Amino acid sequence: MAQKYYITTPIYYPSGNWHIGHCYTTVICDALARFHKLKGEEVFFLTGTDEHGQKVEKEAKSRGITPRAFIDPLVERLQDMWRLLDIGYDRFIRTTDADHVACVQRIYQKLYESGDIYKSEYSGYYCTPCEAFWTEAQLAGGKCPDCGREVTLQKEESYFFRLSKYAPRILKLYEDNPGFLSPKSRVNEMVNNFLKAGLTDLSVSRTTVKWGIPLPFDEKHTAYVWIDALSNYISALGYLSEDDSLYRKFWPADLHLVGKEIVRFHAIIWPAILMALGEPVPHEIYGHGWLLIGGEKLSKSKENARPELTDPYELVKRYGADAVRYYLLREIPFGSDGEYTTERFLKRINADLANDLGNLVSRTQAMIVQNFDGKVPPHAAPEGPDGELISMCEGLFKRVDADMGALNAPDALADIFAVVSRANKYIDETAPWILAKDAAKRERLGTVLYTLAETVRVCAVLLKPFLTQATERILRSFGAENDGLESLTFGRLREGSQIEKLPPVFPRMDIPKELAEVEKLLSAKKEENKAEPHGAAPAEAKPPVGFEDFTKLEFKVGEVIACEKVKKSEKLLHETVKIGGEVRSVVSGIAKFYSPEEMVGKKVVVVTNLKPVKLCGVLSEGMILCAEDGEGRISLISPEKFVESGATVR
Ligand code: MSP
């Protein structure tokens, strides 16, 4: 019977601010899932979204829309990102899916009936962005110890899970199963920071959060988001439902791959819940490292401070899914953090994909086209350096399998690329262009080119889990059959079969030129963001503010006395505005709607107490108010009757 492999990513918060760091967990899982499929195993790969909780509730409220209306477009955008990156999951679960909701309710009911969930009162410090509760002792300088942000003291009636009871069993789980939690450093972290001191019972319901799953035995309460979220790993398989065949087939999971900041939830709370349910725990939890920028975890706010291209949609558009996948899988030492820069990204792609792999493919195909009319050449017995290359190919699966067994994609790729490099060296050693000049050496030439074609083919088969698109093209161009592990046997290409010469699979990039272009792209985006609201105002209603907040802003009538276009920008105008006795420099994003000439002489309304900023290098000491319609058309707001410049607007 085929072996099964069940692998999961964490389910993602619907933040919408996806960056390349977010793609890391999912790309690794996808490569692992594809590798196990290649081995002929029955694989289930799960990912999805974590949609309930206070954060979403607040965000939706601030926009005046329902949580569902807020989340749905974000979920679609996330699914788009996975499509772009060729992520081949077997299920995308949403915690708002009806089967998940029903499963979570059954889990709570079961734990309530067994006495593992009981009612009490909660008092603690809550970090909304992390959706985590902390005791006073756990706070770092009064702030959330995970993210450093503000926490709020909350007191409420709550149901508790008897986590304390499971601490000794979790410690024993770590001792008896050294493979349960990796890398080793995470075990020490869990034991020293949490388990040694003993665990306190966990508050697992809220009365203050409405956007959550109601508890079946007390509908005033909603499920704590982490219990809701963690349950996805079994609800997706039909646990406690009428049809639990997937659960029986795939559980326990072979691997929960998660970022290191959420290991605590997966390696302590999750096994305790499963133990309480009487279910087996997953085989392995792996806490991977982070992509860093300037030594800190990559986050949307930091992205703006540096000229790094971190937007996955943009990266895939410019360089393709394979390049992004390759970078993530090859560059960051598995288990550790890795610094991300656009330059490193480009260098890695150029060196490995364009130079090593791209060259090998195009040199091999060009020589077959030139010398054998594009047909796989006849070949004789191997000689000289052929043997070494062939045996490298023949042993390659075993090495890659061992690497992937240790979840080590960077080493797996290093092993495959060692063969690619060896093959490039083999071309230099055998010098086929010299063999081609001598008719007596035609058989040898055929053997060399055949050996190369087979090497490319074997490498492409093994690269399929990593580079999903280029490998398809390469294999198709060699007319190679695609039958899983069988196709790894050296010597399967049939003599005389036609090959197709591909254009460069990974074109070489001029890195300084590319970096300059990226910088230009990023600064244009930054300027456009700054120039809001003109041109891109959100249509949603904002929550009410008190009059005291309104009076913090100062509005005055101004007269535009000079105006010009801002150089290097298509959107910005630079106005000189007279406001009473004062003259100010103001930049506004209205160049698509007003010419500099027509602006001069206009009376406008200016917000005069905004902090000055520089836009495209030009000082802006205020903001001119405009109306914008649903189509993004702009109209200046002007006083209806004559008023002197400097008049107050309120
Ligand atoms: N919703 C929770 C998980 C619940 S699972 C039951 C969550 N979501 S998340 O959207 O914040 O994170 C999703 C994944 O992205 C996590 O594995 C996280 O570690 C990963 N990353 C987010 N930023 C990252 C980096 N800068 N680098 C690497 N991975 C990072 O946590």
Describe this protein's structure.
The protein starts with a strand and ends with a strand. Residues 533-539 have low confidence and may be disordered. Helix 13 (321-331) crosses helix 14 (342-372), helix 15 (386-405) runs antiparallel to helix 16 and helix 18 packs antiparallel against helix 19 (470-477). The strands form 7 sheets. The protein has a 6-stranded parallel β-sheet with strand order 3-2-1-12-13-7, sandwiched between helices. Strands 17, 18, 19, 20, 23 and 26 form a 6-stranded antiparallel β-sheet that branches. The chain is α+β, with helices and mostly antiparallel strands and 650 residues long. The chain has 3 domains: 4-288, 3-Layer(aba) Sandwich (Rossmann fold), CATH 3.40.50.620; 340-488, Isoleucyl-tRNA Synthetase, Domain 1; 547-636, OB fold (Dihydrolipoamide Acetyltransferase, E2P) (Beta Barrel). The protein has 22 helices and 26 strands. The structure holds 5'-O-[(L-methionyl)-sulphamoyl]adenosine (MSP).
